[in-house]
Amino acid sequence: MGRLSYITRRLVKGLFVLLAIVILNFFLIRAAPGDPAQVMAGEAGASDEMFIEQLQERFGLNRPLHEQLFIYVKGIVTLDMGWSYRQDQSVASLIGQRLPATLLLTGTAFCISLMFGVLMGALAAARVGKWTDSLITTVALIFYATPLFWIALMAILLFSVYLGWLPGFGMVSVGAGYTGLAYIGDILAHLVLPALTLGLFYTAVYARMTRASMLEVMEMDYVKTAKAKGVAPGRITRVHVLRNALLPVITLAGIQAGQMIGGAVLTETVFAWPGIGRLMFDALLQRDYNLLLGIFFVSSAMVVLFNLITDLVYTFVDPRIEVS
Amino acid sequence: MTKGQRAIALAMAAAVTAAAGSALAEEPKRGGTANVVIQPEPPGLIMGLWQNAPTQMVAGNIYESLLKYDQELNPLPSLATEWEVNDDGTVYTFHLKDNVLWHDGEPMTADDVVFSVTDFLAETHPRLRVSLEHVENVEALDDHTVQFTLKQPFGPFMGIFEVGSMPITPKHIYEGTNFQDNPANNHPIGTGPFKFAEWERGSHIHLVRNEDYHVEGLPYLDEVYWHVIPDGASRAVAYENGDVDVLPGGSVENFDVARLSELPNTCITGGGWEYFSPMAWMWLNNREGPLADKRVRQAVLYSIDREFARDAIWNGLGEVPTGPVSSKVRFYEPDVPRYDYDPDKARELLEEAGYDGEEIRMLPLPYGETWQRWAEAVRQNMQEAGFNVSMEATDVGGWNQRLGDWDYDMAFTYLYQYGDPALGVTRNYISSNIAKGSQWNNVQGYEDERVDELADEGAVAFPDEKRQEIYSEMQKIIVEDAPIAWLLEIEFPTIYRCDMKDLIQTAIGVNDGFGDAWLDR
Amino acid sequence: MRDFWKRFARNKGAVIGLGILIAVVLLAALAPLLYPDSPWRMVQRPFLPPMEMDGFWFGTDTLGRDIGAGLAHGARISLLVGIVSTLVALSIGVTLGALAGYYGGLLDDALMRFTEFFQTIPNFALAIVLVAIFQPSITSIVMAIAIVSWPPVARLVRGEFLSLRSREFVQASVVIGQSNARIILTQVLPNTLSPVIVMASLMVATAILLESSLSFLGLGDPNHMSWGYMIGAARTVLRQAWWMSFFPGIAILLTVLALNLVGEGLNDALNPRLARKGR
């Protein structure tokens, strides 16, 4: 079976899902009370009918709804996400400015959690029933139950306010004007707390999942056979167990990679991280239709993309899976 | 006085001493950079196109109008050096400076003023539009003389030449173009002390000294950076770390003010808002439900501990208002019935009115923690006096729409009063201003024939003694009817380094403050 | 029943979790007795640190409201939202999953596409949008949480139905001519209960976290004191008053932890086959 045709089919399906999401969101956001013209008139400190009408005309809000939808979808098909009137900039450039920050944050958190999570889970499974296992399981459970935004605040309080080790807000020092290595160092220092707190929850999820899945695989016949044959336990864990046990972890990683944009709203809010999650929240409150839809479009596209990647990775890792 | 309030009082005293000191002898020093916070990021910097607060704050240093106002609201020269009024108050003649250049080098003339008023702002500026209804004709008598002819006397006319109300906009750039889509909108051209240099979205706006400024020797500063920091706590940290020198009013949460004012070299002032004289109140929907009854509305006022809110939420800054006109606005009348905190009185009034515990819907102002806490405190006060209040959460979009549709019972807001009842007060009480779709008119639906008459007369009466008499009577009637629950004459604290001198000199504070400011470093 | 308890009690964590959970439920139930005043009432001076004054062990907030009262009354909202939204999510998920799994074919395809669709939209973002659009209230929060949390239930139930559908006892019922509705309700559904119950206990935990996250962002019901709200309101005064955000956070942590522990215990007790493998 051709991997290529499989990819194509998945891609086409993904595009339809994307389109459906765009349309759903288009109507959802218009169901909210108020429109961008009203919000902007509200900020102006004075308004009259003429003013609101001018704004609505500019934003195309005075056209019939289906026409607005048609214009929007037509734009999206050509990857034109429109204009944000509140910010007076194109949606693409706004997202372009903010997306790297979010990718940096979520990417780091993703790597941290995947690495530590799998490591902790594997360790716990290898020492099942021992105190190491209990410790890891308990810690993972606590991470799992901790509200993200709260642990973020506590981290700021401890590391930023009391100890003064790390900056607690923003992505760069305001007005410091660093360049080169100092600039990168500054960003990294700002990255530590948000990335760690964002990664905490998923570390727990990976640890729990890896542990469970490894224990399951260990019970399987081929592992028992290998044991009986006298293969060294370390090698069994590495070669036979871990590889197979990672399959569900990969699925989860795919889901997480897509969902982290949503989760980043909280982290970005607490740490004032200038990313796309916070941008989405502001766009929502200000009824910045095009911007909000654009962010939803981009983040859903990423979910679709990551799902596709997951599926592909799956086909490589587990030859038993057919690509049909 | 709490510890925090004491700290604020000390910092304010320091601000006064610093100001007095500078007035005595000190010679201003040239040079230096001011780092200022701007919150939120403005959508654009063309002052005539955008009337929101952040645009005003930055662009007020780029653009100018004919006049400025001191903190007692007396007119000061700006683009105009002299002005005269005819005897019946209908013809105003302004003599402009003859050495004013636009930032692109073109000379600024009377034609620019006429164009700004009759073409540009008439199309883009809803607030000015209301005042312009009194204007019959604007003409340039020569290159440096402008004459405004009014249909009848308009008392507050001398008060509409503030830069945010009437920013003079270059004719040679905008004439005959679509104002909203003019490519020049990315690079504002004004006549002010600072020129636009660069705007890196999401990071900062950079203004540089206008070397050709028409006032010799000004400005003192070389450049001003406005930093966009989209989070209240980070803004506070940026000030603490020394990254920014000025936190304009409203840029940090009130709960941070006390802590910041304890920092060394830190001054704090509530000044610089006199022109706006913001007043916070709750709209009470006079049309229907329990609040249609005057006694119930009075009970609302009696039930609220406004001093407590001022002290706990606003750091003790600001005055509790006595009525519709702020004490900082002209023609304020102090001799009116008082509504001091008195829950027992509120209960009596409710009983008398036969209030049966019907639910009253309250909309807080969706502008952050301060306003949310305030609404919670007021709700608690009212509930303790026997009201059944339920709060309905809305965001900015929802709040605007529900007010515009009159779909509320009580709603928090604050409005500017622009120094004169005819500009910023009567608009909220006259019955001809009852119309859906605006958050700035008579949203509560208050109707009183006598008030309508007085408001009309007060706007066109001449001279001021006459206006005082009229407005005093009007205020007494309105206070008795309690159509609105006035909460606080807000003083947004500006926090700045004490060695930043002469920052707040006018009635609009930092909005045009950097033209005179200098650093004593 | 005794077997069930025995298996449950073998998991020590689950017993501890149950203990905590009972304590939280009691706190919620007794809140009006412990703190008869409204938690919104300004009873002391603002910014009173904890343990400084008798009766105000947890301190007061920016307006002088008792944090202790907030904790007690907040427990009610957390539990209420957690439980109700889970019930709503279950009823959507079980219905769709059962239909898809039982009937299979085109219906299955359609329903699963629908489910996937909901899984593609970033779900916390969707919850935020839903609550913002319908304006924050208990109802909109419950609905939003339910809408983002039903898909896994549907998939689980569908899976169970698919495998049960071909079992002999189900086939037998089909042969003797029982109606589909009857088979679904009396034969298949009861057999899927165990995993659904386990999942439900975890969903309540997730729902509590979701509710607190929404409240933290200012999207809570403003008429009900909730833990997330307390943390959100304390954020701006983090430096002056650690206690305002610390205690409600601990409350959420303990409750969610307890529910997870209980979930594991239930899993051990209800699915003895899978027990001891850990989750």
Automatic annotation (TrEMBL), chain A:
PROSITE patterns named in the record: ABC_TM1 (PS50928)
InterPro entries: BPD_transp_1_N, MetI-like, MetI-like_sf
Domain of life the protein comes from: Bacteria
Keyword Membrane assigned: yes
Topology of this chain in the membrane: Multi-pass membrane protein
Keywords: Cell membrane, Membrane, Transmembrane, Transmembrane helix, Transport
Domain ABC transmembrane type-1: 99-314
Transmembrane segments: 12-32, 103-126, 138-163, 183-205, 245-271, 291-317
Signal sequence residues: none
Pfam families: BPD_transp_1 (PF00528), BPD_transp_1_N (PF19300)
Cellular localisation: Cell membrane
Keyword Hydrolase: no
Coiled-coil boundaries: none
Family per similarity comment: Belongs to the binding-protein-dependent transport system permease family.
Name recorded for this polypeptide: ABC transporter permease
Naturally occurring in which organism (per UniProt): Aquibaculum arenosum
From TrEMBL, chain B:
Annotated compartments: Periplasm
Gene3D superfamilies in the record: Dipeptide-binding Protein, Domain 3, Periplasmic binding protein-like II
The keyword Signal belongs to this UniProt entry's keyword annotation: yes
Keywords (A to Z) from UniProt: Signal
SUPFAM superfamilies: Periplasmic binding protein-like II
Signal sequence range: 1-25
CDD domains, A to Z: PBP2_NikA_DppA_OppA_like_13
Residue span(s) of domain Solute-binding protein family: 75-429
Family designation: Belongs to the bacterial solute-binding protein 5 family.
Protein name: ABC transporter substrate-binding protein
UniProt lineage: Bacteria, Pseudomonadati, Pseudomonadota, Alphaproteobacteria, Rhodospirillales
TrEMBL record, chain C:
Alphabetical UniProt keywords: Cell membrane, Membrane, Peptide transport, Protein transport, Transmembrane, Transmembrane helix, Transport
Gene3D superfamilies the UniProt entry points to: MetI-like
Subcellular locations according to the entry: Cell membrane
Ranges for domain ABC transmembrane type-1: 75-263
PROSITE patterns to which the protein is assigned, alphabetical: ABC_TM1
Pfam families: BPD_transp_1, OppC_N
Bilayer topology: Multi-pass membrane protein
Lineage, uppermost ranks: Bacteria, Pseudomonadati, Pseudomonadota, Alphaproteobacteria, Rhodospirillales
UniProt cross-references to InterPro entries, sorted A to Z: BP-dependent_transpt_permease, MetI-like, MetI-like_sf, OppC_N
UniProt xrefs under PANTHER family: D,D-DIPEPTIDE TRANSPORT SYSTEM PERMEASE PROTEIN DDPC-RELATED (PTHR43386:SF1), OLIGOPEPTIDE TRANSPORT SYSTEM PERMEASE PROTEIN APPC (PTHR43386)
The protein, known as: ABC transporter permease
Transmembrane segments: 12-35, 79-104, 124-148, 196-220, 241-262
Keyword Transmembrane included in the entry's annotation: yes
Family designation: Belongs to the binding-protein-dependent transport system permease family.
